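Standup notes, structure subgroup. Blocker cleared on the magnesium ion input:
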Amino acid sequence: MMEILITELDVKDIRFPTSLLADGSDAMHTNPDYSCAYVTIKTNKEIEGYGLTFTLGRGTEIVVEACKSMFYLVKGQNANEIFAHFGSFWRKLTSEPQLRWIGPEKGVIHLATAAIINALWDLWARIENKPVWKLLTDLTPEQLVSTIDFRYITDVITEEEAVELLKVNQKDKEKREEILRKTGYPAYTTQVGWLGYSNDKVKELCTKFLALGFTSFKVKVGQNLTDDIRRCQLVRETIGYKNKLMLDANQIWNINESIEWMKQLAKFEPTWIEEPTSPDDILGHLKIANELRPYSIGIATGEMCANRVMFKQLLQARAIDYCQIDSARIGGINEILAVYLMAKKLGVPVCPHAGGVGLCEMVQHLQMWDFICLSVSTKNRVIEYIDQQHEHFEDPIIVQNACYMPPISPGYSTKFNENCIKNYSYPNGEKWRNIYEQGLFHKLSD
Ligand SMILES: [Mg+2]
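Run returned:
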């Protein structure tokens, strides 16, 4: 086996001042500065890996420190050895006997795991000279399954069952790859309905995205019912009832409140209500689902689901109709694959969360693998799309006719361009220095 030695790891705090324009505002996160902890893995060859986890500004420095605490587990390793035993390496990372106390497999330490694991997959794909979706689809079912740690989920799916699920779809893989290369993977837009946007802006954006070919639109709700009704009406007037409308409450409601509020919005025929309540409340989601399914409203959640064990229970309990994995959360690709496999077995479509820094870039790879190798369908499946921060990446997403086109460049599409790092490193990047000079932000330490 060729030896590619991991010689150095680096992590940067990168922040974009998105709160200045209310981009990304929702019922719970009213002033986010889209940010990330950005990991670079250096090797004794020319090749490097780049990975990130998404954050909202303050607190990124804590994730950065958590990454640093974990680096010793990766430094000095032979990269190909890691990839040959990726499942057990993932377990080593998440079961570090002292660090696991501040998780386990949740919170800051698990976000740091995601950033490091994402960088490792990027490195692997670059070594193989393939985009990650192609790396995933070219792995044999056995190889792919060997990257997953099945601890805590074998009551729902075993390694053998996972291999079987993948084996049945091997023969027409090329055909589906061809379809993807021709038409891409359907996207939906969240950009029409941020809470901070005015009526005119909502209407203008609906018209714009309709013209671009979008057929699914998402609106933020949950702060004020009268205002939600007004904005849903506005969106429905513009997009009609043939197109899809999804709603997202970002965890603001209690259980009974979710049910009552959504009954008031049922006339707008939403496909799903996303994150109605706490991401940890499995039985709460089940109660909401039972009350709202008679209205044909589905339940979606997952962007802040802590790990595969929580996903397992949401799926087992039939508490969700749409499973929304997040590429920068749970423990990166290895753990996300486990969730896709459980969702497939239990018949729940995966519609990935995206939109934050690098999330669109990453989830497209996963969903394309799912289409080629696992679910082999785009029915009831769609990838979230938001047109923000793509310009900072070397290989930004390409969306044509409201579809994500398969990335061509090697890696996980997560490498920032040099200017981005120079400008948006926090707090000393050039843009940040200008912002402080203009008095637009105040340093917390001041
Ligand atoms: Mg959401």
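Discussed briefly. The mean pLDDT is 95.
Next: hand off to the docking folks.
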